[in-house]
């Protein structure tokens, strides 16, 4: 599903964010990418969604080499990859349903399709009763659930979650992780970028540890180790 072949990323100022990364993530896997701040884990997430391009090497998503993807093709890729960030990025003047609908509207989806999909994703994330609420009237955990629902509208094969629990308390964070696990069980490949040892250890699935832009550990069932 995701393959990095000797991928490096060097910024113009000489900063090496990734150095000769070589790994593959299979369809249906739940993988945690961990490491200290500045280790390069977020760069990996950004390269998966083509927000950053590698300096060297190949990145293949579902058989598609996106290493030098054209700007016009990025929206097509993004419809196959759901993205969840620490910063909710919700539109404050739109309701929960409108925030989710907007992700479909910008892609030209017809109203009939929108009216069908929005209730479905709201049910998955458990927000059926919050449809007409505005973001400011939701808890942090509920806002993150809206973000996840929005990420699911195109039925992506991959969900990339970059520090999705960073702004949440411990109990709410675990609820969000449980939701990601549920989505994974439904068949979506999940890539979780996090620095939270407790969450990674509880998941007890594959862990890729990044250190100074390189992979220091890659375990099928692992714990958070640095």
Automatic annotation (TrEMBL):
It is a peripheral membrane protein. It comes from the Bacteria. Belongs to the ABC transporter superfamily. This is Cell division ATP-binding protein FtsE. Homodimer. Forms a membrane-associated complex with FtsX. GO terms for biological process: cell division. It comes from Candidatus Kerfeldbacteria bacterium RIFOXYB2_FULL_38_14. Keywords: ATP-binding, Cell cycle, Cell division, Cell membrane, Membrane, Nucleotide-binding.
